[in-house]
Amino acid sequence: MQPMGVWHAAHAGLYAATAGLTGKFAASYSEAHWLCLVVSKFLMFSGAVQPQLGFCDERVTLFRVAMFVLTLLVNALLWTTFSKALRHSASSLEAIVITTASNMLITAVISQVLFSETLGVLWWSGLVLVVFGLALIHAGSVQLAQKRRKHR
């Protein structure tokens, strides 16, 4: 895989994780309310706005709509970037392996940092097995492509 293919595939994984995050905020009232509280505290400390009591109760629907729109935009970025990764890859599996692995790793970091989720040994073991399986599939496709080139 060319360096640009790796770059685009890793970014596609980042956008996939971000789309999942914005989708979570769009779908869940409590998560959107939490995000509104975080944003309002930031605005308060920066001096830009002085939120009143009930600020987020009145605006949580607006936050959810904004997160839905952002989810659509991030998905557009994801597919554009993934298409570029496919263009710069020797095979589609290369782009899929890197995109899937980076998506899973970034999702794990986001879930631990933002939501204080604990990911146990079973989850990390599953991640390692998925990445290992994707690497095996990729290695097999590379060997098959080399055999096909020799027989031509």
Q: Any overview of this molecule?
A:
- With 152 residues, the protein is mainly α.
- It has one domain (3-150).
- Helix content is 86%, strand content 0%.
- The chain has five helices and no strands.
- It has helices at 3-27, 29-46, 55-87, 92-115, 121-150.
- α1 (3-27) packs antiparallel against α3.
- The two termini are 22 Å apart.
Index terms:
mainly alpha, 152 residues, elongated
Topology summary:
Blueprint: H1 3-27, H2 29-46, H3 55-87, H4 92-115, H5 121-150
Please outline what is shown here.
The chain is an all-alpha fold. 86% of the residues lie in helices and 0% in strands.
Overall outline: elongated
Sheet with the most strands, sense and barrel status = none
Q: If you compute it from the alpha carbons, what radius of gyration comes out, rounded to the nearest whole angstrom? A: 20 Å
Distance between termini? 22 Å
Question: Structural class of the secondary structure composition?
Answer: mainly alpha
Determine the number of helices (DSSP H or I, runs of at least 4 residues).
5
> How much is the average pLDDT?
86
Helical fraction equals over 70%
Instruction: Please give the number of β-strands.
Output: 0
What percent strand? under 5%
Query: What number of domains?
Result: 1
SSE string, helices as H and strands as E: HHHHH
Please mark out the parts with pLDDT under 50 across 5 or more consecutive residues, or reply none: none
InterPro entries: EmrE-like (IPR037185), TMEM42 (IPR039632)
Protein name: Transmembrane protein 42
Keywords: Membrane, Transmembrane, Transmembrane helix
Transmembrane segments: 61-81, 93-115, 121-142
